[in-house]
């Protein structure tokens, strides 16, 4: 009985550690609940299958789309858009954010504009993108970029700005020059948090996928989902949603691994 | 050159802020530190001790007056003035060994020579076994030992220490004082050491500078003639206690005026 009581105590202690088995069980229970509610609602006929597919219909749809390879074409098409949009954003936001967080003058110059743009709804810009860029992959990548870049930039600037002044001061007293501090000290010091920012904003890239594929795509998970809506194929919509979630989860884990690999010291 | 390692504080004034928020932190303080001298600076909290060291390090600028180190006017930070801070400032992404070799590596010292140097300083601060640990895996006392080794390995002319043991428990503090005495007796660097612990000041210093309450000025300059090598046992001897009384009296005036 004693162990049970301590387990309960550890669950109810703020920031308390819990056994990893307990974490796994808790996660499984929540998943089982969600899937269970879905199964009961659909198999039980509480919700019409026009609106809510039965789970095995989703699986069968997945298998049939996978067997002729079209599923992978759509997945790859979406992954390509997300990765390109995200990389384009990160490649600019990381160095620029570092400069923004480090040098007041860069921050003063950019922040007002960036903050203005970052509150514009991306959807409101889509007509403009189509007019300017057309309806190719460039348009979709641009939507992802706009969904991610401006907030990513501000978040990375904040991380650079939060680096301890005395860490930079200490490097000066060891001979580091002022113009070297940004790459020799501020960047490595902020790196774990920068990777965290990338991980979080990668999630946003996935959430903008459907917006990106809304207008003019002819492949992709958002595209098949929209097409399925017109044909009332709710099982395909479910399949696309689940795959986007799954891919998001995988990219999240990839960034966690990247952080552990690049910054073992911050574990 | 005989100037190497000297520190000359010349009529230094410092104000923080502007307008209503203006604070006069240092008000025309002057004193000289000879090469190889261990000078300890004490004074009421907020009197500008840290500010003075930061100016000497070139990390902030004096409002007027100047500081000369090794005869050269301080205009910017440089590796010739090493500093150990009260807060922990090891580079967290580098191991203990990499932290200590940061300065020599920057200067382009060849690896074999560098490794020997780092080994020597790690041994001196008793952390050879922790060479490949990251700062996060160390205790506060160990981190400050690495910080001292890191500063010394860069071979500065002057070592500035701003309450380096202030955050440590008294047990660890005593160990660190002994270690610093030993290390200093080997290197005989010029040291400017800030503390608010009077026992520590007398135990370590050739000389104790007492500052007034803010705005900081020179209040007293007391020579500590206790023979070296010293160890913490001297704290019980009459000479030590007499010095302590003297410094306490100087300080008490300042602290009473504060209230
Ligand atoms: N960045 C700052 N801005 C405004 N005032 C400051 C700043 N840094 C220190 N001060 C003020 O200057 C005085 C001296 O500070 P400091 O040098 O840290 O004193 P000490 O190290 O002797 O405690 C204090 O009254 C402190 O409040
Ligand atoms: Mg201080």
Q: Short description, anyone?
A:
Chain A is an all-alpha fold and 267 residues long. Chain A has helices at 2-11, 20-43, 55-67, 70-102, 104-118, 122-133, 137-161, 165-172, 181-207, 209-212, 221-230, 234-262.
Keywords for this entry:
heterodimer, A: 267 residues, mainly alpha, MetI-like fold, 12 helices, B: 259 residues, alpha/beta, Rossmann fold, four-stranded antiparallel sheet, 10 strands, 36% helix, 23% strand, binds adenosine-5'-diphosphate, binds magnesium ion
How would you portray this structure in words?
The complex is a heterodimer of chains A (267) and B (259). Chain A has 267 residues and is mainly alpha-helical. Chain A has helices at residues 2-11, 20-43, 55-67, 70-102, 104-118, 122-133, 137-161, 165-172, 181-207, 209-212, 221-230, 234-262. In chain A, helix 4 (70-102) crosses helix 11, helix 6 crosses helix 7 and helix 11 (221-230) packs antiparallel against helix 12. The radius of gyration of chain A is 23 Å and the shape is flat. Chain B has 259 residues and is an alpha/beta fold. Chain B has a domain at 1-76 and 190-259: 3-Layer(aba) Sandwich (Rossmann fold), CATH 3.40.50.300. Chain B has helices at residues 49-57, 96-100, 102-106, 111-124, 140-153, 170-187, 198-204, 238-258; strands at 7-16, 23-33, 38-42, 64-69, 72-73, 81-84, 158-162, 190-194, 207-211, 218-223. In chain B, strands 6-7-8-3-9-10 form a 6-stranded mixed sheet, with helices on both faces. Chain B has a 4-stranded antiparallel sheet with strand order 2-1-4-5, with helices on one face. In chain B, helix 4 packs across helix 5 and helix 7 (198-204) packs across helix 8. At the A-B interface, helix 8 and helix 9 of A face strand 6, helix 3 and helix 5 of B. Bound molecules: adenosine-5'-diphosphate (ADP) and magnesium ion. Adenosine-5'-diphosphate is lined by residues 16-17, 23, 25, 43, 45-51, 214 of chain B. Magnesium ion is lined by residues 49-50, 163 of chain B.
